[in-house]
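Researcher: I need the complex structure. Ligand is NDP. Inputs:
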Amino acid sequence: MRLKDKVALVTGGARGIGREIALCFARQGSNIVIWDVNPQAAAEAQKEIEGLGVQAMSAQVDVTNSKQVDESVNKILDKFQKLDILVNNAGITKDNLMLRMAESDWDLVIAVNLKGTFNCTKAVSRLMLKAKSGKIVNIASIIGIIGNFGQANYAASKAGIIALTKTTAKELASRGICVNAVAPGFIQTEMTAKLPAEIQEKMRSAIPLGRFGKPQDVAELCLFLASNESDYITGQTIIIDGGMVMA
Ligand code: NDP
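Model: Output:
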């Protein structure tokens, strides 16, 4: 029970990697809060988590909306009186080559991925500062490190998350709060399932470990970064990609 009696908030936790992180934390004894734009899927995830014997709550929260984020943090406090862990996982893609990319698609991806991470971190860090402890895990991407065709908005948002992670880690370290980022490679979720088969095959052949990642792979790394086992690690971006990118 590596997270016994902790309270963890996972944004975009209704499905994909976020749902797996929430389940993984719950199996380690953490109570869970799921925020997502899809309330039905969030409620289903909540039920599954409660079945593991911990408390859970879910809410329809759009991370781009700072007012909604602030109000929803207060609701967490009403139920749990504290928040120990934040995983900024909510993220979207709107791919197109830069010259064809609509301004609205640039704005939306930056708003959800980068501003959403800022909004949630700002709202939650007030509580963590008072508690003089906390763990924040930001889900970045290797695309934020190496760039990618057709993903100018996504790459910029994820690079921004890496820089935000370092800055937040510096600002919060003196109060015992650790902030780290995880940079997954190709993980099998609905987000990547929409890529054409030939692109998926090309990517698989570039992975030294010879397989795509699973949401559980990312969840286990987040668990480490959310637990006391990583108390001396902050401001880092840890790549989890089967060896695709080696610095
Ligand atoms: P999914 O699309 O499967 O899940 C993302 C979740 O976030 C969905 O439940 C989605 O809801 C929710 N969401 C979207 N917009 C918002 C918002 N504004 N506010 C709150 N919740 C929102 O994605 P993945 O699980 O694949 O990705 C999770 C994270 O991991 C993302 O940050 C992604 O960039 C990152 N990542 C993923 C990789 C991969 O290969 N899959 C690789 C590297 C990084 P809904 O579906 O209803 O819109």
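Model: Summary of the prediction. Strands lie at 7-11, 31-36, 56-60, 85-88, 134-139, 177-184, 237-240.
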